[in-house]
Amino acid sequence: MANTLTAFNSELWSAVAQEVIYKENVVLPIANTEFKAGLKKGMDVLHKPYPSAVLSAVDYTKGTDVTLQDIGATDEYVTIDQQKIVPFEVDDIDRIQNKYDAAAMYATMAGKALKNGLEHKVLSVMQSAAGLYIDDGDMPGGTAGNYISPSTSNINNIFLAAGRKLSNRLIGAANRVALIGPRLKEVLLDYLGGKDTEMADRVGENGVIGRRFGFDIIETQNLPFSAKWTPADNPSNGQTLTIAGVTFTFVSSLGSTAGNVLIGANTAATLDNLVAAINKSSGAGTKYVELAFKDRMILTQNGITATDGTSYITISGYGDISTATSVSADAWSLQRSHAIFCVRKAVDVVIQKDVTFEFRKPQLRLGRIVLAWMLYGAKVFHLNTDSIVDVRIDASDWTN
Predict the structure, then answer these.
(1) pLDDT band at residue 41, thresholds of 50, 70 and 90?
(2) How many angstroms separate the Cα of 155 from the Cα of each of 136, 180, 183, 188, 352?
(3) 347 with 369: CB under 8 angstroms?
């Protein structure tokens, strides 16, 4: 018997499409955003001068003229120069015939992408402007200049050293926060034996997950990260390179497998193709095969970009990013993450235009063009630089 009754089968479609999960944004609640209300049309710079002279108390002798101390001021400003946009289009035919509202779905994704980019920018500004830092030299028995490998034996010293650096700059004990990644949190909980209640007296307040040694602890997935990859020779066929769990495979014939990178005539040419693949720049289909959606989303959310150094590449991004290679001679190096311990409002974020959606009709076709955009600037002003400690973390042993 050979019955064929599949034509009677029905199909079930979900009431909603799958949701793309984005990183949680936690930085704005600790930033100074007080200037947003004062911004008006025609403004693109916020000035915030500071006193440039130090006054000191001197002895006074009765009946004798004193020497006046010179005073002055220095101007400092933040330019509102971050002009970010996410443009896309939905045809009217699709809008009518689709079961799901693609415009609404992608508008939500666009808004989250803009907010995620803002978080990257603010944390990058804080890390680069930090006037203080701690490294392995601040750990018991450590070596100055090396990055810290966090462990249960030094996790407390990280908090204590950061607190000492702030106190030595006369920064008060109030309003201190520690922005840490999931891996540093894991070490801390391991030290506590998994008893997160021991540090949980402020949980739930603006992203705070706990408190330790005077710091409100905030977990973020967007801490600045960087690394360097140097191949010993031109990669061979089948060799792989992994960034944040996303694998690129070097091949002598491009094929159609997502993540393939064409091996060039020499190392420099191959690295050109690899950088194009990581950055999703021109060359898809000839230099590389574009990543699958989920892998591209991982790189995009982590803000990962590659820079070509001819004989090596460097990558930068945001989050607890792991790196790997299938050939031990082609080593990753300088894998570095930066936790940030600071005082609230140490960074100024000036949002002139929050996430905004504009809808426009294309001239000669049906549909809607959707433009999601925002306008902002971020800066750590001079007198706040010593309110930020760059905690330099060695990420060389991180695995995905």
Answers:
(1) confident
(2) 12, 12, 11, 6, 39
(3) no
Residue closest to 37 by CA, chosen among 379, 343, 354, 384: 354
Section 189-214 average pLDDT: 73
Instruction: Put residue 283 in one of left, alpha, beta given phi > 0 → left and psi -120 to 50 → alpha.
Output: left
8 Å CB contact between 352 and 39: yes
- Rounded mean pLDDT, 258-266: 98
- Mean pLDDT estimate for the chain: 93
Residue 206 has pLDDT above 70, yes or no: no
Residue located via tokens 């992994």: 242
Question: H-type helices in 13-148, by residue range?
Answer: 92-97, 102-129
* Residue, of 368 and 46, whose pLDDT is higher: 368
Say yes or no to pLDDT of 37 above 80. no
Cα–Cα distance for residue pair 315/263, rounded to 1 Å = 20
In the chain, where the domains are located: 26-53+72-224+336-400, 231-330
Question: What are the angstrom distances between the C-alpha of 393 and each of 10, 22, 226, 243, 389?
Answer: 55, 24, 11, 18, 12
Sequence length of the chain is 400
On the question of pLDDT at 205 being above 90, the answer is: no
Which strand (E) or helix (H) includes residue 159? Answer: helix 155-168
Mean pLDDT of 130-152: 97
Rounded-to-integer distance, Cα 324 and Cα 242, Å: 5
What are the helix (H) ranges across 241-343?
A: 267-279, 293-301
- What is the Cα–Cα distance from 123 to 342, expressed in whole angstroms? 11
Residue located via tokens 């009518």: 96
CA 255/CA 117 separation, integer angstroms: 33
Alpha-carbon distance values, 108 to 21, 177, 304, 348, 352 (Å): 11, 30, 22, 26, 20
Contact of 248 with 241, CB cutoff 8 Å: yes
- Pick the closest to residue 298 from 283, 324, 276, 320 (CA basis): 320
> Rounded to whole angstroms, how far apart are CA atoms 279 and 302?
12
Nearest to 392 by CA among 32, 142, 186: 142
pLDDT higher for 206 or 340? 340
